[in-house]
Write a structure and sequence with these properties.
Number of helices: 28
Helix content: 55-70%
Radius of gyration: 32 Å
Largest sheet: none
Strand content: under 5%
Structural class: mainly alpha
Order of helices and strands: HHHHHHHHHHHHHHHHHHHHHHHHHHHH
Distance between the termini: 78 Å
């Protein structure tokens, strides 16, 4: 009876394996599938043996039953082993094929082979071999998002790949993932072959975290030879520019002399010219930096940001639309999704593509699905991101939440949001942020708030200050409660927030806050002109509600 149960159980198991998965033998969610077609012959053989033994003495029945059990157990196991041997051979051939593509300078074909065979990888040694191939291919295609994805899955394979590690580290600093950057920097500390590049990234990370004193000490503490020192000199020039513009220019000249083909001296020269109000020279320097490496998405983003700060959204959006094409990065897609919601709703060739991998991709997809007539939907966000509250600290989410609160008439909430903003000089539009704070403060408390903060005011100088923003700043600096009648009347209107957005050049945001095609009869002349121009030039303006 036990043997009979074993044989019957084996038959049931064989039927149950139809369409199921036996494993895991694979990588991730992949597994080796054993169908009923593969197992059924062994089940049939066991049933045949048992049938022949059913009319014989018990001892012979037990012997035949044992044989049937061996058939049931050894047969499928042997099939699995043969399947794995075949796959190992195929995997080895595919590995060589991908390597040949890389040697022939065809990284896209290599990546296609890697993608098709990723699920066959079953052990750690093989994973490292294939990850090495993938890193090489991604470096050749300059796919930074792909490199970051591999690093998130297999950071141990970067331990001897410095150029790939530097590429990932650059993305981490750009996206303000400073803790992740610290971990990667620690992996290479003391054994780096490109110390100048690592020091530049450390400096950038410190500056982004408002630790300029530590950043200055870092630059002063190290010196390098030749081209390796260019990045340090360029950054040192930007720090010295605040005290001695001539010394800063000399340092930039040294940097350019040591690395004539590097875009960094030109990039920091552009930033210096912009800070001094020399916008034509700054534009030329930004464009020269891009020419040094036209495929570098960071350089194109810097040029787009310059256009954006100057209020030239058509040129900025054109550049951002170009960097959305593969290979791209999630933060560029998110930034573009934001500006298409508040500035101009342009269409891009990349709209039919999927966003690149990265932790910001879900937020990009959320904004792509959001009703174009709203800025933010907190209920939909909380449903899609129940445990991702950290994304609320990003500028994109801050501005969209602030504008939606204003649009909904929740001015107390809007005032809380803008007062808790921690962006300061790094705000995408310091004059607009300050103006919204002053308007909300006045409408809640009867005065426009304190004078401008020095650091924020200095950052605001890089952008044109509209008469509306200047009037609000003068009112705050006067520390008087009495407000001139024209400004006071404007502050009480239901279109003051739209007026602030139009003053900043955020045409689409202004139209959404205005919510009417009727130009207010008592609006200032500049606002009437801005509204009329927006309705003429913004695609789909008449469809907003």
């Amino acid at each position: 009876m036990p043997v009979a149960l074993l044989v019957f159980g084996g038959h049931v198991a064989g039927e149950g394996l139809r369409g199921s998965r036996l494993g895991p033998f694979g990588y991730g969610n992949q597994a080796v599938t054993i169908s009923a077609f593969a197992v059924q012959p062994y089940v049939d053989k066991a049933k045949e043996l048992w049938g022949r033994a059913s009319t014989h003495p018990r001892r012979l029945q037990m012997a035949v039953g044992a044989a049937a059990a061996i058939v049931l157990i050894v047969g499928p196991v042997g099939f699995v082993r043969r399947r794995k041997r075949v796959r190992r051979k195929r995997l080895a051939r595919a590995h060589e094929m991908a390597a040949q593509y890389l040697r022939a300078g065809q990284p896209h074909q290599a990546l296609a082979v890697i993608g098709r065979h990723r699920g066959w990888i079953v052990d750690d040694a093989t994973r490292k071999e294939w990850a090495g191939l993938e890193i090489t291919a991604l470096e050749q295609t300059r796919d930074l998002a792909g490199l970051c994805a591999v690093y998130e899955e297999s950071d141990d394979v970067f331990v001897d790949r410095e150029s790939a590690s530097l590429a990932v580290a650059r993305v981490q600093v750009q996206c303000e993932r400073f803790e992740a950057f610290g971990d990667l920097r620690a992996m290479w500390r003391g054994r780096e072959r490109r110390p100048g590049a690592w020091l530049a990234l450390e400096f950038d990370a410190l500056v982004e975290q408002d630790e300029e004193i530590e950043a200055s000490v870092l630059l002063e503490r190290r010196r390098f030879q030749g081209a390796d020192d260019a990045a340090r000199l360029a950054r040192l020039a930007l720090l010295r520019a605040q005290e001695n513009a001539e010394e800063a220019e000399a340092l930039l000249a040294q940097a350019a002399q040591r690395a004539p083909q590097s875009p960094e001296p030109r990039l920091f020269h552009a930033a210096l010219q912009e800070a001094q109000g020399r916008h034509k020279q700054a534009l030329a320097a930004y464009q020269a930096a891009v020419k040094c490496d036209p495929r570098d998405p960071f350089l194109r983003d810097h040029l787009a940001e310059f256009y954006r700060r100057r209020g030239n959204f058509p040129e900025a959006m054109k550049l951002w639309g170009e960097v959305l094409k593969p290979p791209s990065m999630d933060f560029l897609w998110l930034k573009t999704a934001f500006w298409r919601r508040v500035a101009i709703p342009v269409q891009f060739e990349a709209d039919s593509l999927e966003p690149p991998p990265g932790e910001l991709r879900p937020l990009v997809e959320y904004l792509r699905k959001l009703d174009p007539n709203v800025f933010w939907d907190m209920a939909a966000f909380e449903s899609a991101f129940p445990h991702r509250t950290e994304v609320l600290s990003r500028q994109e989410t801050f501005w969209l939440r602030l504008l939606q609160a204003i649009r909904d008439g929740h001015e107390v909430e809007a005032l809380s949001l803008v007062n808790l903003s921690a962006f300061g000089p790094r705000s995408w539009h310091p004059p607009l942020e300050s103006a919204l704070s002053r308007v909300l403060t006045y409408r809640q408390r009867g005065f426009v708030g304190p004078p401008p903060v020095a650091a924020v005011e200095k950052a605001a100088q890089q952008q044109e200050k509209h008469p509306l923003f200047a009037a609000l700043d003068r009112q705050a600096e006067s520390r008087r409660y009495e407000i001139a009648e024209p400004l006071q009347r404007l502050l009480h209107t239901n279109y003051i927030f739209a007026a602030a957005c139009f003053a900043a050049g955020w045409k689409l945001a202004g139209l959404k806050l205005l919510r009417s095609r009727q130009v207010p009869a008592d609006a200032p002349d500049w606002l009437q002109e801005a509204i009329g121009e927006a309705f003429r030039t913004v695609p789909g303006a008449g469809e907003l509600r």
